[in-house]
């Protein structure tokens, strides 16, 4: 009898912890636990020039930074008010991933 009660208690705790983890993940935005402002200032700071100018070269650092950010997060950051306030055109910014691909994947 005691083992069955202990089993029920342990299973209840495991289910409760799992549900709490799932709920906390739902509270995160498209960039995970980081705000778009933090992604902009810490992760994508090397991408500012190519986001302003379609013909500016994309640095290797910008390329590496983009690899660590999901596409959904990029779309959110590139279309955010913070990015627009610093003079970035979201349409130009969205070309950066393809420009990185051409610059760093097509060349042997």
Report what the structure shows.
The chain has 108 residues and is mainly α. 67% of the residues lie in helices and 0% in strands. It has 8 helices and no strands. Helix 4 (60-67) packs across helix 8 (96-104). The longest helix is centred in the first third of the chain and has 25 residues, at 2-26. It is elongated, with a radius of gyration of 21 Å. 19% of the residues are buried. Keywords: Signal. One of its GO terms (molecular function) is fatty acid binding. Pfam families: Tryp_alpha_amyl.
List the main descriptive attributes of the protein structure presented here.
108 residues; Bifun_inhib/LTP/seed_sf; signal; fatty acid binding; Bifunctional inhibitor/plant lipid transfer protein/seed storage helical domain-containing protein; mainly alpha; elongated
Task: Put the structure in a nutshell.
This protein has 108 residues and is mostly helical. Helix content is 67%, strand content 0%.
Element layout with pairings:
Blueprint: H1 2-26, H2 36-43, H3 48-52, H4 60-67, H5 71-78, H6 81-85, H7 90-93, H8 96-104
What name is given to the CATH topology of the largest domain? Answer: Hydrophobic Seed Protein
Oligomer description: single chain
CA distance, first residue to last residue? 69 Å
Strand segment count: 0
* Total domain modules: 2
The CATH class of the largest domain is identified as Mainly Alpha
Rg calc: 21 Å
Task: Return the structural class.
Answer: mainly alpha
Helix content: 55-70%
Average pLDDT works out at 76
Largest sheet composition: none
Report the β-strand fraction as a percent range: under 5%
Order of SSEs: HHHHHHHH
Principal-axes shape call: elongated
Tally of helical segments:
8
The CATH architecture of the largest domain would be Orthogonal Bundle
CATH superfamily of the largest domain: Plant lipid-transfer and hydrophobic proteins
The residue ranges in which pLDDT falls below 50 over 5 or more consecutive positions are none
